[in-house]
Design goal:
- The chain is 24% helix and 15% strand.
- By secondary structure, the chain is an alpha+beta fold.
- It folds into two domains: 50 residues, no CATH class; 36 residues, Single Sheet (Anthopleurin-A).
- A three-stranded antiparallel beta sheet has the order 3-5-4, with no helix packed on it. The protein has a two-stranded antiparallel ribbon with strand order 1-2.
- The radius of gyration is 17 Å and the shape is elongated.
- The protein starts with a helix and ends with a strand.
Length: 112
């Protein structure tokens, strides 16, 4: 009985983590970034999106992007954080953020 309970709890925790992670791959847009937000799908935003914020990702709006102010930076991918994916050899170690949604054999590098 205890093992079944453990399995159910583990599966529930994994599902909750997956449900709150950001799956969209929109890039940074200045209009949204200046307001402290990130471009994501509306259903990925943990709080309601105001009408003003719905139009702050104009270049990606047709793809469903809205500006969300309530997302933690660790939940965002490389492009949403206004960085870029590079070959690891082209990114100094002190600017390497790891994978963060980059294609295979690339890492997220801080743009300076």
């Amino acid at each position: 009985m205890n093992m079944n309970c453990f399995i159910v709890i583990t599966v529930a925790l994994i599902w909750c983590q997956a449900a709150r992670s950001i799956e969209s791959n929109f890039y940074y847009e200045e209009c949204c970034g200046k307001k402290g937000g990130a471009c994501v799908l509306k259903n990925e935003c943990p709080q309601p999106v105001s009408e003003e914020f719905e139009s702050l990702c104009p270049l990606q709006k047709s793809l469903g992007a809205v500006c969300c102010k309530g997302i933690k930076s660790e939940d965002l991918n490389c492009y949403q954080q206004h960085n870029a994916c590079f070959d690891p050899k082209k990114c100094p170690n002190n600017l390497n953020l790891g994978k963060k949604g980059c294609p295979e054999k690339q890492i997220c590098c801080v743009l300076v």
